[in-house]
Amino acid sequence: MDTQKVIVYVDGFNFYYGLRSEQRWKQYYWLDVVGFFERFMKPGQELVAVKYFSARPTNNPDKNTRQYAFFQANKENPKFQLILGNYIPKDITCFNCGNVIHSHEEKETDARIVTQIVADAYEKNCDIAIVVSADSDMIPAVEIAKSIGQRVFVYFPPNHYSNNLALLANGNPIHLARYESRFSHSLLPDTVHLKAQGFDLSIPAKWKSYQPVRHP
């Protein structure tokens, strides 16, 4: 029997906010993304890529620095493929007081995920697609991929769920909150050596503070 190739598509914002939604999950921000999803592979399956979709929060230097560290640490694994959208300025006017709130909105991520899922299905780059999101914007891509014979499974981040996605995917959805032990066994080391740059990268101090003290 031939090995089944698997590609995982991670909606980075949905995944991050799933972890952010509850204090206990914040300790897993510094996650080895490829290592984590490797733990879900079944016999006869090969994880060929994790495509991680996000955008750089340029309006927040501290958050941007932490996210950059996370991306760089994970990019040491060649199976981790980072695909970035953009943040654009967005002004929100309060209906009550008329004040204008200057904010930013992430753009293009959903479109990039949808495009990648459909393109990989048409090009037969994998036998199984795993969509890590609870965003209903993924539905058209799942429908198209399935219509051309692609098997598509859905994994929901902690505290996130979409009934429409759950009903559309092959098999029962995976609720990642039920697999906390796999999170705990998939953390990156506190210090990651970046081979190409030739220096060591440390876990952001704020993220380290979320982790329980581990005694030797």
Largest sheet: 6 strands, parallel
Count of DSSP H/I helices: 8
What is the percent of helical residues? 25-40%
Which oligomeric state applies? Answer: single chain
Overall 3D shape: globular
List keywords for this structure.
216 residues, alpha/beta, two-stranded antiparallel sheet
Concise synopsis of the structure shown:
The protein has 216 residues and is an alpha/beta fold.
Structure description:
The chain is α/β, with parallel strands linked by helices and 216 residues long. It contains eight helices and ten strands. It has helices at residues 12-20, 33-38, 61-74, 109-122, 139-147, 163-168, 180-184, 205-210, and strands at residues 4-11, 45-54, 80-84, 86-93, 100-107, 128-132, 151-156, 174-175, 191-194, 199-202. The strands form three sheets. It has a six-stranded parallel β-sheet. Helix 6 (163-168) links the parallel strand 7 (151-156) and strand 8. Helix 4 runs parallel beside helix 5. The termini are far apart.
Fold blueprint:
Layout: E1 4-11, H1 12-20, H2 33-38, E2 45-54, H3 61-74, E3 80-84, E4 86-93, E5 100-107, H4 109-122, E6 128-132, H5 139-147, E7 151-156, H6 163-168, E8 174-175, H7 180-184, E9 191-194, E10 199-202, H8 205-210
Parallel strand pairs: 1-2, 1-6, 2-3, 6-7, 7-8
Antiparallel strand pairs: 4-5, 9-10
